[in-house]
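In response to reviewer comment 3 from the previous cycle, which asked for concrete evidence that the modeling workflow produces usable outputs, we include below a single protein chain processed end to end. The sequence was submitted unchanged, and the resulting structure tokens are shown without manual editing.
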Amino acid sequence: MSSLSVQHLLGIKYLNEKDIQLIFETADHFKEVINRSIKKVPSLRDITIANVFFENSTRTRLSFELAEKRLSADIVNFSAAQSSVKKGETLIDTVNNILSMKVDMVVMRHPNPGAGVFLSKHVKAAIINAGDGAHEHPTQALLDSYSIREKLGDVAGKKVVIVGDILHSRVALSNIFALQLQGAEVKVCGPRTLLPKHIESLGVEVETNLRKALNWCDVANMLRIQNERMDMSYFPTTREYTQQFGINKNLLDSLEKEIVIMHPGPINRGVEITSDVADSRQSIILNQVENGVAIRMAVIYLLASMIK
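The workflow returned the following structure tokens.
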């Protein structure tokens, strides 16, 4: 069997295109599994996985947990909010305590960029980055690309615009890396205050006019405004943001072609996207959620197969 070129999933920037294709082919297999009447396979019966979340998460955590259960792994759940981290315990101590329980793999979300990389150098376990600060969120980017491939047949040659709060988004960075690796063209669109200063150095174009961006693209990936990461005001009002960078049905229907709408969730309905767009037939938001389980099963399975 083919194997990944990495022993951890720390970020898309550490993967190559073959890795992504292998993950997608494995996810195809698992997608069949989760659509069967018996949704479990005994693949990882001897593997123990710790879900270590230092930040709140509902969808990503549930998706990982479901993927682990579908693979028959044993699971340890750890939430920093109710833990000794509050008492001053360090990241390494926390994880080493979990590893002393003979854990093979750690799925970690952490507010600090690079936390997964740091951990991978200090503990003996496969690490999956479930989001580190405003840095990367690799499984989200993989499931986004996988959803585009499923809807449009291929990612190569497609035009994708990422709209919204690029500055605070780990989803945007991982998506840019993943889409470019697969040969897609990427633009970003949003208020100048929410675009990183040197974003063009990543090989993406900046477009501040939403209608132009939508007329250009095949796929629009709408991001929410991450108020919890903001320490100041980046635009005058939410209403003004919505008028300039939100998608409603009238705008969608007035475009020169039909485009695909995506959103990593959670959706702020009525801000970046209206309900009639989120629930329209052009939206693949619920497909993304379903594909998230298959992609995470694939990543866990492939990394587990390399554990000695």
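Residues 235 and 241 are 7 Å apart (CA to CA). We consider this sufficient to address the reviewer's concern, and the full set will be provided in the supplementary archive.
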